[in-house]
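Bit of a strange request maybe. I'm writing a small parser for C-alpha cell strings and I need a real example to test against, not something I typed by hand. Could someone generate the C-alpha cells for this chain?
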Amino acid sequence: MDPATTAVINYLEQRAEIDRVHVKDKSTCSLDAFLRWEEKNECELPDDLKKFYTMSDGLEVRWSIKTGNAIPTFIGKMYINSLNDLTRITSSGSKQTAVDELNDFAENDTPRFNSCAWYIFELDPCDGQGRVCLVYSP
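Reply from user aminoacidic:
Good idea to test on real output. This should exercise your parser:
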C-alpha cells in the first residue's frame, strides 16, 4: 500500500470512536497486466495510477462505529476498482449515458466532459449512488 493510504488507515485505527477498520488485501499488478489492459483500452494510464496499481490491484477500506446498542454501524468506505474492473467511459454505444450523467450539472456549472478530448475512467461505482472518476487529457 502507498504511504498516504497507510497513513489514513493508521489514523482511523487510532480514533477512539472508530470500532473497526477492514482493509481488503489486494495483489499487485504485473507489467504484463498493464500491457494487456492498455492494449484492450487503447490508451495508456497515467504514471501515478500505474504506480498505485504496482502496489495494490485496487483498494477497499471500510470502517464502522459502535452505536448505543453496541452494533457496529458502517460509516465510511474508500474504494478503487481493480485494474480489470477499471472501466473507460466513452461517448459511443451504451456508455453514452454515462458521459451524459457525468455532465449532469446545473446549467452554468463546469466542467463539461467529452470522451473524445478526455480519458474518463470509473474508479468507484459508489454502490450505485454516484461515481468517482479519473478524468485526464491524453
